[in-house]
Amino acid sequence: MTTLDLPGQLAVLPLAHCAGGAGRATGPYPDRLKPILSLAAHAEAMTEIGEWPGYAPTPLVGLPGLARAAGLGAIHYKHEAGRFGLGSFKALGGAYAVLRLLKNEILRRTGQHASSRELIAGKFADIVSGITVTCATDGNHGRSVAWGAQTFGCQCVIYIHATVSEGRREAIARYGAEVIRTAGNYDDAVRTADADAKTHGRFIVSDTSYPGYTDVPRDVMQGYSVMVEEALQQWPEAAPPTHVFIQGGVGGLAAAVCAQMWERLGDARGRFIVVEPDKAACLYASALAGAPTAVHGDLDTLMAGLACGEVSLIAWEVLAAGTHDFLTIPDAAAVDTMRLLADTPFGDTPIAAGESAVAGLAGLLMACSRPRLAADLGLGPDSRVLLFGSEGATDPELYARLVGRSAEAVEGGAQ
Ligand SMILES: Cc1ncc(COP(=O)(O)O)c(C=O)c1O
């Protein structure tokens, strides 16, 4: 596909590609991965989250003009900006893990099985109000944990690292959490949150897993599966997606998408491609090395939600088995793609997407404009691509600076 007339520099910016392990394996979703993510655990997440006030599926937006221009059959973009009023898919994960944690504590202390409804009604307030949840965040996860804590009635302390914007800090504080800014990068903030939790007896609700800490991040990922299931229910084409391009931070989102699609669709799940910023490509580095591998430095990508130097271990187990390709892209590609979605030169519905939401689409478009890579990835007129636009303009000031106008102006007040 060489005719794609891409705005900005998408056709010439550098892109790196590494083949993943899924190229060597076929068959159904492996039993060994079910303790991490499964349709059985998904059913519980769907039931609980479906009961939360304000639950509604986010839209799956077709981009037929862009698909035509890119030489593809179809592109569908799951637009997560409206998720529970929090602006991103993360609303599903952190808050769900807070709920699971509180339910487990109530069960341990009283022998009773609590539901979302009972917690929201304040039935176990005497127990829950004495519990403090905590985490480190680049913004969106902390917002979800803080919102979950407020919704279910417990206390919350959130850690943000040096480069997290003031707008993102305020968005977390709005849900009643204490917000602490630390020196260093995201991974340093994770370690500080961990140490303080031990000192003060807080419960860590992290979206990343490490040795000895896997239960909560598994619940976080299982919460995300609600978004994936919605997309599969909304999918309007006669046949399933041939490709999924999904952005990666620690890999939790990608693993949730991979597992849900794999267990639901088996061999028909299509090609699964993970896209990361080139300044924070820990999944790509792990794919190259064939084992979890950290990348170092200040990870100062504009794609704040993807600024992670260490993979989540349990997410990596799923991705190592289920990913066909890993791509890395530069920040400028994300900016061009945000503008493309806002300006819609190909006549599609305008979308206000945040910096971290567009990496998957940026990777797709960059691949389409490189004939060898497009052929390698099997991209062409029969391709039906599913994308997860994981956030709206969660940092409104930054969005307006990058795109030239506000999210409201782009979407005509829809956001
Ligand atoms: C908007 C957005 N997209 C994608 C991601 C990546 O998710 P994960 O870290 O689970 O890979 C994040 C993480 O914070 C995010 O905020």
Give an account of the 3D structure.
There is one protein chain. By secondary structure, the chain is an alpha/beta fold. It folds into two domains: 16-89 and 221-412, Rossmann fold; 90-216, Rossmann fold. It has helices at 39-50, 64-70, 90-110, 116-120, 125-128, 140-152, 166-173, 186-200, 215-234, 252-265, 282-289, 313-322, 331-343, 359-368, 371-376, 396-403, 407-411; strands at residues 16-19, 60-62, 74-79, 132-137, 155-160, 178-181, 203-204, 243-247, 271-277, 325-329, 384-389. The strands form two sheets. Strands 1-10-9-8-11-3-2 form a seven-stranded mixed sheet, sandwiched between helices. The protein has a four-stranded parallel sheet with strand order 6-5-4-7, sandwiched between helices. α1 (39-50) crosses α9. It starts with 15 loop residues before the first strand and ends with a helix. The site of pyridoxal-5'-phosphate has 22 residues, from α6 and α10.
